[in-house]
Amino acid sequence: MTIHRTLIRILRKLLHWKRLLKIIAALITVVFIGAFGFLWYISAFPNIPPYTEITEYRFLTPSDEKVCADGEQHSYQGWCSEQRQHYYRTPQGTEFFGLQYDWITNLEKPVGKSPLVTREYMQRLGYIYDPAPKANENNPYDLPVGLTWHYDPETKAKMLDVSCAACHSAQLTYRGTAMVIDGGAGGHALPSLEPTQFIANSIVSLTTTYINPFKFNRFARKVLKDAPKEHYSKKKKELRKATWSAIKQALVYAKNNGSLYPTQEGYGRTDALGRIANTVYGDNISPENYHIADAPVNYPHLWDIWAFDWVQWMGTVSQAMARNVNEALGTRSRLDLTHGDTLYDNSVMIPELHCIETTLQFLKPPKWPEDLMGKVNQDLAAQGEKIFDEVCASCHGPFVRKAIAGEINYKDAGQTHDCKTCHGPLMTNSAGKLIELSDIKHHPATKINADTRLGTPVPDYALQYKRDWYWEMIHIPLDHIGTDPTSATNMINNTYDITRVVDLIKAERAKGSFLALPDPKLIPDPSKTGFAAGLSFIGGQVRDKQYREWGLVEADGYKTVAGKERQVADLDGFGEVDTPVNWRAYRPRPLEGVWATAPFLHNGSVPSIYQLLSPAEERDHTFYLGRKEYDPTVLGLDVTKFKGAFKFDTSITGNSNVGHEFNDGLCGDGVIGYELKDRPGYCRQFTRQERLALVEYLKIHEDGERPQPESKPHCEGVAWPKDTASRVTLDAIIEIGAEQ
Amino acid sequence: MIKKILKWLSVFVLAYAMLFVAVFAGQMLIAELRDPDAGLVDKTEEQKANRRTETAAIVESVRNIVTRERTPQYQRDAHSKAHGCVRATFEVFESQSRYNHGIFKEPGKYQAWIRFSNGSVPAVVDTKKDARGMAIKVMNVPGEQLLPPLLAGKTQDFVMINSPAFFIRSTADYRVLEKAVEIGQPFTYFFGEHFINPFEWRLRQLYIALGTRKKAPATPLSDQYYSMTPYKLGPHQMKYSAKSCEDYQAPGIDTTAPNFLRAAMKKLLSEQDACFQFLVQLRKPGARMPIEDPTVEWSEKDSPFVPIARVHIPKQSFDTAAQNDMCEAMSFNVWHAVKGLEPLSHFNQLRREVYLHTAAYRRVRNDMHATEPNSWCDSLEQYCAGNTQ
Questions:
Q1: Residue A134 CA neighbour count, 13 Å, CB half
Q2: Domain membership flag for residue A673
Q3: What total number of domains does chain A contain?
Q4: Looking at CA atoms only, how far is residue B27 from chain A in angstroms?
């Protein structure tokens, strides 16, 4: 009883309002000072890589003749500056928590008045800058490559848009010179939630701006500098509201996604498929669909991908438009999957994606710059070429699949050449099981048939219209290649519940809507939808919605309108059908220009090609990322320790650096070579000399002739408007598609 | 103040000790109550495919362990310390027809090699507790080999340790263990990464593991050895065992010496012959005799071990440099076997890849060109020269 009374007495004393006030005031002060100190510290001394001064920019692969700007200039990597600008700045419809383009450039550091987004800061974080002069209507504020804007169709706001080039462009530095690798592997940590990284820091800064009225006044004056005086206070109120909304969205995102990515991605990686799934199935449908995504992958390089039949590290997607739409959705394009009447409303910009895709058809791999990084030893390279043809080419191809009059004749294929000619040494089915090619007498029928969305196939466009032929990608089973399986197994094992979407469709159909339900063959149980099947369905709906608005697809269905087949085929990408497959495998790709794409393997766990040609035990178990200083002796990055680096630890889930080994013992289970001639099935490691020869050869390796790209990139009508219009006009696309 | 902290600390420690006991008791109880193989059998294509990937990962870990533990020779990833390879005769008796499959089809006498070993890697002195291994390689065995011609000889191997049960329950667990060994922290396998999370404890497996580490016998020839994992015997399933005919002693040997087991065997075999009974235990349908779970011993009450062959080890001297080298070059693999004695269970499937890979790896790294032996030769060169492959 007495204890009870004492407690009450103490409580009363504590709760006396004066004392309470004091306690609260003290607490607030402590929290405030603590937060301020922390923000000041990360603003003044961020733990990020040091600044690398760039004295010169160097473009690679110059054209033999001057082909650009009326014959005045060379093209580089197949692009004139027009294509380069299209690639660098064409938006794709992504939105990051409602962050606006004008905000980014006007934000101050969380503490102090100096601007947050500066060249120095962004370059330290691995973002790269356009070597072109600063003043540029595509890039008025001197932002990194790939950062651009689009106008929100409803609010008319100028949204920050992170486009393809942000992650798929690189600049490798070598003694002060930056080699521009267009389409190369990006080196930033865009998805990171660390407060010193760009997106998170922007949100932190926006929050302090929101809290601190002086800071907000400065911010508003700059953002609203063009606003007429009489509307200023109204605009400022709107700005304040929009700011708060962005902070809220970011907080919700952090709450939902904060713990989903236990394996730190660091510089140059993201768990692309995991993040797409968590965004589309999790953020957009239901929190139950969140899955741990612990398989970061490199940003793949983009040259030649248009010539492949399968893309992605696992080789899972065959249609360019499907892949691009899904990527845009995963990079936080707006998508409504929760309201029946506005189902599939989205901010994906299909014309722009098509412009970027077709521009990439002209991108060439980077050529080794001898004057900058040293002459190639031709004798040594010739030795390397021999080994390459014997060992590497059997998986990396390219395997040319040619069509005659638009059709590939499979009937006689078996008689005229070995299966391996097209399929490489190992062909797997979708379960990753090896197919015994010798057991197969006849080639199965092509997948184009009367059931496909294009209707009855017409040989000259149906299969590979215009491209005529392509490079077949083979799939090497996980257990054979032995590289980190997490990415593939996550994709195969995770399922997602899309019944909410299916229920919405059903309700709409009851009201007379034509909206299709998922194909029960591909999605038998919507509560357990596979990654690829679900994305193909949802992404397909987004794509078809756009096609329908353009009159390419029936207004109340999914059939291509008669006479529009060619345009649809063109937009889709050479008439490929979207038939995603979960291969339990990784896909080797042709290797021209691969020297410029370090670090290596799909998860970026091997810092150089020399190490990739070595037994796993000789590879670095930990190394340091965050700079892009090139080491031409090993074809890789300088990964020595430095302050602010990201420590890559290969013992963490998703980071394994084993597999794709050249080692002693039996071949297989991660050892892919070098097979002994006198003892088939037994492998040995490369000698140091052999590795060096291959390293030398890979500097100059060429993959030979490419298929025919489109006649020109479909970017007609791309303008840099000041209003809400799309940057690519529809007419241009439709016209281009119809030409021939 | 300090007293208080101490008090709380002791309460905490006590609570953890009780938790430890409770988890251990719980795991033992669950193991007794559950159907041992339930949950270990692959049900979907996906699980099968995952198993292949798992195997590749284990092979990789094993390669790394072998590389790290080289001396400078690349050795086995387990049972690297040999007490010697001895010549033996494998004599198949006439037995009931249900045992007459594979090498036991007809009575016969075969030349064989036997390698005795300590389990631990890196090798420990014989005076320490350890598992002891006995591997028999019977040569010139008629019948169709299970391995492809390139890897097969005409041999039938029997691989055993001196405990009837293995301490790891599944190949998935084995992958975790090999990873832990690879990074040099084997104890994290039993206690989890940070030791404090009771859900990561594998106390039953630890108990079995400690049980397999035994004080050394008087000589390697004075113990009983078991296959642990099951095999086919024609239409039946079986486990096998080799039991020494008598409790051999080697008086006058200093049992505190680090390699006394080799010395004891050397002394014994310089004076007399030795022998083992070779026994099989058939699986009785309906009894608690799991195929997949090697932590569960097959009860001898349900089905006794029955002798169907004899291993005769003649008086000999075996401890020569050439013969020891040959011993290290050999590979004892349960898949060196003939039809009718197919290894069963995921563990044996895993052993196929792991054993083939480590053997090939150490042979190439050590520059030893060894294949399957076919005779009681004195050196590697002899048996390789006599090999027709």
A1: 5
A2: yes
A3: 2
A4: 27
